[in-house]
Specification:
Elements (H helix, E strand, L loop, with lengths): L2 H15 L6 H11 L5 H16 L1 H8 L6 H9 L4 H5 L4 H11 L8 H5 L3 H11 L1 H11 L5 E5 L6 H10 L4 E3 L6 E4 L9 H4 L3 E3 L2 H10 L6 E4 L6 H9 L5 E6 L2 H14 L4 E5 L6 H4 L5 E7 L14 H4 L2 H19 L2 E11 L8 H11 L3 E3 L2 H7 L8 E2 L5 E4 L1 H4 L4 E8 L1
Helix pairs in contact: 1-3, 1-5, 2-3, 3-5, 4-5, 9-10, 13-14, 18-19
């Protein structure tokens, strides 16, 4: 495609994404379906340019004021993630000089808002929740693209073997720092057409998400529930940990999300997974399982703000009000899931959020409401049981909770609290 035509497509795509009426990844996927002639490199340039603009939207919008032409075109030029020579062939000499001049502005000379690129409500909440010393490293980390992690399907191969097989097809990787099942790739290679992928040797899954399954610690022969299974990434990890034995229920209110689990299940080789669509946390099908389950993982619906490196549009699509509405849902789901556990059973509550209101506050409220039936299990000793150093991964007295932050853990942002039923 001619450079000018690709820049025009970036402009059109940004205009659609910046309406914020749909998730950015969905808008991008729809654009690619409409333009099937785009090559892999062109798709990469378009997608990464959009994400770069979303990450630094406040900064780029400020810098764009001095340019001319359509705003979305100026933003695309500032956030361009293709080659400089390709862009040079797409812009005028005036646009090229303007881009070079404005991108030379030192961020340290700009207001805080243009440095952290967060909406006011979110910046204030994070500064309050994690403290000023940790805020700026976190803000900087959230402006970087996320790495690509894989989880090895231990039913089919070992991490070392998969690493060697990936290397044989030109894909370099390193073992993840914490998860014993993970590999972190260099770059973002195409994976879906690899025989290793279609045979189920691995799944794409962030290291932090893998640690949630590790802390659930599902055993052979147990009855386990993934309460908010979604498309089943953690379900698959739990099933592998159970060595394809016992019964693993994948519950979700969305049939569409559970349908996305079916091809992944087929690849995985798991036969112990039972997807089940429910209406809500008080569904009769849940009541029939009450008091029978050994382990329950509640990966609760949340703001998703821990995934801002890969989903930067969330910071512009979420609000303090929407988070408050989620808090009530999170508390209700956790209480409903807790009824499933038998005495001695383990309850795991997790989010991919950075906010205390979705994390510690929900766990503390559960302690108050359910303290007679559930004992808190500090996460630090549980991590140590798996040979992991909890120092950089936990917070709270006695290393009570798991808290993963991109700048310290290298993963997405996650929170996790664990209890045992008396």
């Amino acid at each position: 495609m001619h450079p000018a035509a690709l820049l025009d497509q970036a402009t059109v795509l940004l205009r659609a994404v910046l309406k914020f009426d749909q998730p950015a990844d969905g808008v991008i996927s729809a654009h690619f379906r409409q333009h099937k002639a785009l090559g892999q490199r062109e798709r990469h340039t378009l997608a990464e340019t959009v994400y770069a603009v979303l990450r630094r939207r406040l900064l780029f919008s400020h810098l764009a004021q001095s340019g001319s032409g359509a705003l979305e075109r100026r933003l695309a030029i500032l956030g361009w993630q293709g080659s400089d020579s390709f862009l040079a062939a797409a812009v005028s000499p005036q646009e090229r000089d303007w881009r070079q001049q404005v991108l030379a502005v030192s961020p340290n000379t700009l207001p805080d808002k243009l440095r952290h690129n967060l909406p006011d409500w979110l910046a204030g909440a994070l500064q309050r929740d994690i403290g000023e010393p940790d805020f700026w490293p976190l803000a900087e980390a959230l402006l970087q693209p996320a790495p690509l992690d894989l989880r090895v399907n231990t039913l089919k191969t070992r991490r070392e073997a998969l690493q060697a097989e990936l290397a044989a097809v030109g894909i370099a990787s390193t073992p993840t720092a914490h998860s014993p099942w993970g590999l972190r790739l260099e770059g973002k290679p195409a994976l879906q057409k690899l025989d290793l992928f279609t045979s189920g040797a691995f799944e794409v899954q962030d290291e932090g998400s893998q640690l949630l399954a590790l802390l659930t610690d599902a055993k052979r022969g147990e009855m386990v529930v993934d309460f908010c299974a979604g498309a089943g990434g953690k379900t698959l990890a739990l099933g592998a940990a159970m060595r394809n034995t016992g019964r693993l229920y994948a519950l979700d209110v969305s049939g569409h999300r559970l349908a996305a689990l079916k091809p992944r299940l087929a690849r995985s080789g798991l036969a112990n997974v039972h997807p089940m669509q429910i209406a809500h946390e008080r569904d009769d099908r849940i009541r029939r399982l009450a008091g029978k389950i050994d382990r329950v993982l509640v990966d609760a619906p949340c703001s998703g703000l821990g995934t801002l490196r890969r989903n930067p549009d969330l910071k512009w699509r979420q609000s303090a009000r929407s988070v408050a509405e989620l808090n009530a849902k999170q508390a209700a789901i956790l209480a409903g899931a807790a009824t499933l556990l038998k005495p001695g059973g383990r309850l795991v509550y997790a989010t991919c959020s950075l906010l205390r209101s979705e994390n510690e506050a929900i766990a503390e409220a559960f302690d108050t409401a359910q303290g007679r039936e559930f004992d808190p299990l500090p996460v630090g000793p549980l991590l140590a049981e798996h040979g992991l150093d909890p120092v950089a991964l936990t917070v709270g007295e006695g290393a009570r909770w798991l808290r993963l932050l991109p700048q310290t853990s290298g993963s997405d942002g996650f929170f996790c609290a664990v209890w045992q039923r008396r």
